């Protein structure tokens, strides 16, 4: 269990690490180039793992809906934007505001899809996040 | 990108986030929600590894096409100045991103579940970010957060934890 907690903690820390590295590359080149290298290097690494795992085309791939294929395109904009923001806002504020946007849109998505969640907690969370965003402004 | 901030001395308090940057960050966070929805749909149909592999493959192609478009519009002469002073490690941010998928898909399938993975991951993300800012990691600007920034971060994290828990407990 404690190993899993460590893995989850590291998983979050790696998000910050890659954003910091990509942000540095964006300073030297451009946000879009940084996003390209992020995806290309990540692809190479994952391709190597795939070869080791030996499963190139899992069964469900052919029947996956189109929605399942567009994540990478959104990722290009996500990484480019993060790389642009980190040198401007710093790692903590960039991370905080990205999480804020993720959570606010996540609640909207949950409400639209009628997902099971406790409404008052969601609304309290939204209020806290909005307060945080307003505080970050001045 | 025409607006450059005046150079500030090391360890200065950071300039407050400006509206354009805040709106961009919030919108980008919204993009992340859609991206995770897409990638988790693929993972549900296949495996987390395949999902991440295809996302990076599609991302590489889209980014390459976008770069070509930028270069065509600007003209290649402007696109290839000798500005490339980035150290080799600066090109390796993608390794860290690829590894993230492995770690989080492992812990999300443990007793922590998705809720625990998200909540603890949030902590890991913010703690390292504060350390990075304090030390100016990877050659980026050093910055000591203002008290107000810390309160803002705290409110955002508390709100995020509530929303994550609202899903975990409600499901």
Outline of the structure:
With 138 residues, chain A is mainly α.
* Number of DSSP strand runs of chain A: 0
Helical element count of chain A? 5
Biggest β-sheet description of chain B: none
Q: What's the SSE pattern of chain B?
A: HHHHHH
Q: Return Rg of chain A in Å.
A: 18 Å
Overall domain count of chain B = 2
Keywords (chain A): Membrane, Transmembrane, Transmembrane helix
Pfam families (chain A): DMT_YdcZ
Transmembrane segments (chain A): 36-54, 66-86, 117-135
Protein name (chain A): EamA-like transporter family protein
Structure characterization notes:
The complex is a heterodimer of chains A (138) and B (171). With 138 residues, chain A is mainly α. Chain A has one domain. Helices cover 79% and strands 0% of the residues of chain A. The N and C termini of chain A lie far apart (42 Å). The mean pLDDT of chain A is 94. By secondary structure, chain B is mostly helical. Chain B has two domains: 69 residues; 85 residues, no CATH class. Chain B has six helices and no strands. In chain B, helix 1 packs across helix 2 and helix 5 runs antiparallel to helix 6. Chain B is globular. The termini of chain B are far apart. The model of chain B has no long low-confidence stretch (mean pLDDT 86). The chains are: A mainly alpha (138), B mainly alpha (171). The interface between A and B is large, with 115 and 117 residues.
């Amino acid at each position: 269990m404690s190993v899993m907690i460590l893995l989850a903690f590291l998983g979050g820390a790696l998000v910050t690490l890659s954003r910091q590295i990509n942000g540095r590359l964006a300073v030297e080149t451009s946000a879009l180039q940084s996003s390209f290298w992020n995806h290309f290097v990540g692809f190479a690494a994952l391709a190597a793992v795939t070869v080791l795992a030996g499963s190139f085309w899992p069964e469900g791939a052919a029947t996956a809906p189109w929605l399942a294929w567009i994540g990478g395109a959104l990722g290009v904009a996500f990484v480019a934007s993060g790389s642009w923001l980190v040198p401007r806002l710093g790692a903590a504020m960039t991370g905080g505001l990205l999480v804020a946007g993720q959570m606010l849109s996540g609640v909207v998505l949950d409400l639209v899809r009628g997902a099971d969640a406790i409404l008052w907690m969601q609304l309290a969370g939204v209020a806290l996040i909005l307060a945080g965003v307003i505080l970050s402004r001045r | 990108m025409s607006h450059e901030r005046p150079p500030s001395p090391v360890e200065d308090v950071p300039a407050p986030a400006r509206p354009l940057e805040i709106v961009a960050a919030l919108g980008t966070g919204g993009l992340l929600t859609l991206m995770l929805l897409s990638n988790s749909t693929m993972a549900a149909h296949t495996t987390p590894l395949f999902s991440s592999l295809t996302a990076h493959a599609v991302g590489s192609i889209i980014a390459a096409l976008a770069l070509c478009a930028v270069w065509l519009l600007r003209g290649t002469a402007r696109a290839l100045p000798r500005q490339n002073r980035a150290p080799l490690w600066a090109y390796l941010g993608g390794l860290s991103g690829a590894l993230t998928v492995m770690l989080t898909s492992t812990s999300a399938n443990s007793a922590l579940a998705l809720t625990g993975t998200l909540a603890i991951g949030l902590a890991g993300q913010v703690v390292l970010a504060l350390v990075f800012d304090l030390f100016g990691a990877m050659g980026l600007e050093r910055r000591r957060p203002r008290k107000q920034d810390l309160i803002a971060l705290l409110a955002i994290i508390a709100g995020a934890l509530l929303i994550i828990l609202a899903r975990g407990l409600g499901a």
